[in-house]
Amino acid sequence: MDKNIDAVLFSKEEISQKVKELGKQISKDYNENDELVIIGILKGASIFMADLIREIDMSVNIDFMAVSSYGNSTQSSGTVKIIKDLDLEIEGKHILIVEDIIDTGLTLKYLTNNLKSRKIKGLKICTLLDKPKRRKCDLDIDYIGFEIPDRFIVGYGIDYAEKYRNLPYIASIKE
Ligand code: IMP
Ligand code: MG
Question: How far is the C-alpha of 13 from the C-alpha of 95, rounded, in Å?
């Protein structure tokens, strides 16, 4: 194991089980004829997104957005910029945002406000990880994989300075 990895928080098997549960719940909550566009937030949510959509048992479209992130520091800048916007037209559609981890909530607050102004039918948020103690704004999260303490974590798509995204588990890192 990498010398900077502190402890494994969720194993490959625990993640897989949780992703199955989330997919099942999402499939249940939407109607079969809802036009659902699932939006993954790059790059962190890409692996979660890939696994999650295969556990969703209905017809969906997928798209991705990229926003400015922490860069190489472990602190939120608070400023959010859209680096890559959607390719699909979402007017009149149901939107499900898929995020890796919600920390201060500022990124998703900005994104949800932005998407809600595009005449969509409904918007929900699904995050694999949530750090509720760090929240700096009101944010309704519809689906949460795991609540985690205020630790900096990596793996399963989530990085520190662009490293560790390929770890099959989720781990905390020595800060
Ligand atoms: P927020 O705007 O503070 O909620 O930040 C959310 C984004 O910050 C997430 O999408 C992650 O990219 C990043 N982030 C927050 N906490 C961590 C962490 O513990 N490890 C890696 N990235 C994190
Ligand atoms: Mg992210």
Answer: 28
Whose Cα sits closest to atom 10 in ligand 1? 101
Question: 37-57, pLDDT tens digit by residue?
Answer: 999 999 999 999 999 999 999
Catalytically annotated residue among 51, 100, 103, 130: 103
Question: What is the reported pTM?
Answer: 0.94
Residue 103 annotated in active site: yes
108-159 pLDDT, tens digit per residue, is 999 999 999 999 999 999 999 999 999 999 999 999 999 999 999 999 999 9
165 vs 150: CA distance, rounded Å: 19
**Domains of the chain listed by start with CATH number:** 5-173 (3.40.50.2020)
